[in-house]
Design a protein that fits this description.
With about 130 residues, this protein is mainly β. The protein is about 0% helix and about 50% strand. It starts with a strand and ends with a strand.
Length: about 130
């Protein structure tokens, strides 16, 4: 089992910044990659960013490239999502997730690739 706890969400004006954190505990040694997803009201949960735990390789959805940065601190078993130049369309509940498939897999955009999920943290960007 892996437990994931997100924090750092909140209300921010357009153009502002937030940093989300996701602390992992439990069987984290089996984790191949971590991802951040988001879900806006009435929409499907979508991939935002991912990071491979072993080498720090990252990937992003096109809509956040250049604005968001995912990183990890292996000593703290924590993943971060730095969000800059926020837009109202970034408003959503943000979830972190752990992918425990074998290490030869790349970073997945697919929700079903991630076995463990946090409870989510609300990010609201006002215009």
């Amino acid at each position: 089992q892996v437990q994931l706890v997100e924090s750092g969400g909140g209300l921010v004006q357009a153009g502002g910044s937030l940093r989300l954190s996701c602390a992992a505990s439990g069987r984290t040694f089996s984790t191949h990659a971590m991802g951040w997803f988001r879900q806006a009201p009435g929409k499907e949960r979508e991939f935002v960013a991912g990071i491979r735990w072993s080498d720090g390789n990252t990937d992003y959805v096109d809509s956040v490239k250049g604005r968001f940065t995912i990183s990890r601190d292996r000593t703290k078993n924590t993943v971060y999502l730095q969000m800059n130049s926020l837009k109202p369309e970034d408003t959503a509940v943000y979830y972190c997730a752990a992918d425990q498939r074998p290490r030869f897999y790349g970073i997945s955009y697919i929700r079903e690739s991630y076995e463990y999920w946090g409870q989510g943290t609300q990010v609201t960007v006002s215009s």
